[in-house]
Design a protein that fits this description.
The structure is a homodimer of 240-residue chains. The first copy, chain A, contains five helices and 13 strands. The first copy, chain A, has 240 residues and is an alpha+beta fold. In chain A, the strands form two sheets. The first copy, chain A, has a seven-stranded antiparallel sheet, with helices on one face. In chain A, strands 9-10-11-12-13 form a five-stranded mixed sheet, sandwiched between helices. In chain A, β11 (155-161), α3 (168-185) and β12 form a beta-alpha-beta unit. The longest helix of chain A is centred in the last third of the chain and has 18 residues, at 168-185. The first copy, chain A, is elongated, with a radius of gyration of 26 Å. Chains A and B meet through β1, β2, β4, β7 and β8 of A and β1, β2, β4, β7 and β8 of B. β8 (109-111) of chain A pairs antiparallel with β2 of chain B, so a sheet runs across the interface. The structure holds a DNA duplex (15 and 15 nucleotides).
Chain lengths: 240, 240
DNA sequence: GGGGAGAGATGCCGC
DNA sequence: GCGGCATTTCTCCCC
């Protein structure tokens, strides 16, 4: 396949390369994987990242960032920069091949993320409670990465924000911050608040067990699945 | 651009489509994003997944799984199946276009994952300790998803496996299982063991604070970065 | 379908 | 470089 010679030149020229090919793929490094023969899309980017896509699914099936890529016969070999990983693509047929110089100076701007939610709550503290007064945001202190720290009726309040449904790990995160804060600050009473659009039933129970508070809040302007209204605590105590 | 008419036909035919194009991309749904004009790779798969790649980086910049995709003039519009998300690509120029019927009946096989590590430890319990006797693996009981449950000198042992370096959340996971197990089983003494190739310093301190044990172990046959030998506990107590 | 947890997670930011 | 943490996380698996 003389097109593989062109591939060699394009690799040296750091071009953006796209191939539709029948191939098999094997990987060894942080784990091992093998993918038998089939039709795939192979992408080699300007920065020598290599990505393999199957005909379905949003995610790649194999990839390597910033690889050293070489061609040997009909085999493409990619090695990671630290030498501990290896991706091998055996090309059986090339259906389509194109290479280009691609120019893109833009980078994506994202909004509606957790940081934005934090800012919103910081600006609208009454979402937490009528008496809540925020003190600091993203407090990267030795107590941990507290999303929002504030006070309420003379007690410290630690707020943990989640833009999506909260689960067990999120409750534990809050608990860790509260415990550390208590210990290092030497205070007895610290109020823990989890604020999220929804929370899983087990996580809610866990949160209540720890004596923390849940505030339901969906960041405005985000189209998100509406969580079901949460059962009252009594239903947990009586039911099950 | 008459090629956009071909795109319409290919979409109806559920072909695999690859385009190199200058375009801008906006997304709205679980969050919002905007990406100004630049050269991009646009992939539309057999299952109507749509993916946008910039010229560098292993990850896509925008995507949508299983979308409803339509073309209006030079605009590609993808809507999520639940109607809550929208991806809009404004095409300014098409450099390259190809479409194909792609056939791939293979699926990837992966080894060297955590399950394999669990199996290995279960078969070689002396890795944990000379007296450790495993009882069950992946115990999805009401005590939680315990990786390995066993006994040692008449005490229950809960083992949490990590194939990569353990951090704070992993220690908390172990702690949660131990606490639940104690409470629901009504036993006082339960031994907690974290087994991983390495552990972060803060996580190690946290683990020691809780009174648990760390076992350094790298699954065999995996090329993984060698973690530095961990400092002795005394260094933590004396230092800082 | 919900929930928990792993992933070759990746990527970002702060120290 | 390490560490913690969010991610339009995605994916699998079990209940």
């Amino acid at each position: 396949m003389e097109i593989l010679e062109k591939l060699g030149r394009d690799l040296r020229d750091k071009k953006f390369i796209v191939m539709l090919a029948r191939c098999s793929v094997s990987y060894e490094g942080r784990a091992r994987s093998f993918l038998g023969t089939g039709d795939r899309l192979i992408i080699i980017k300007n920065d020598s990242s290599i990505i393999v896509h199957q005909p379905v699914g949003a995610m790649h099936v194999n990839y390597m960032k910033n690889a050293y890529i070489s061609v040997n016969g009909s085999t493409i070999i990619a090695r990671s920069s630290d030498g501990r990983e290896r991706l091998i693509i055996e090309i059986e047929d090339i259906y389509d091949y194109s290479s280009r110089r691609m120019i893109d100076n833009e980078s994506i701007t994202l909004s509606g993320d957790e940081r934005e939610m934090q800012e919103y709550i910081y600006e609208h503290p009454d979402i937490i409670s009528r008496d809540f007064k925020p003190l600091s945001r993203e407090a990267i202190t030795r107590y941990g990465y507290i999303d929002i720290l504030g006070v309420e009726q003379g007690s410290y309040v630690i707020v943990e924000c989640k833009r999506i449904k909260a689960g067990m790990p999120e409750v534990e995160q809050l608990h860790r911050y509260v415990e550390r804060f208590k210990k290092e600050k030497g205070v007895e009473r610290v109020i823990g608040v989890m604020i999220a659009p929804s929370i899983s039933d087990p996580a809610y129970r866990y949160l209540m067990d720890k004596g923390y508070r849940f505030v339901r809040f969906s960041p405005p302007g985000i189209l998100r699945k509406q969580g079901k209204r949460h059962k009252d605590l009594n239903q947990f105590l009586n039911g099950n």
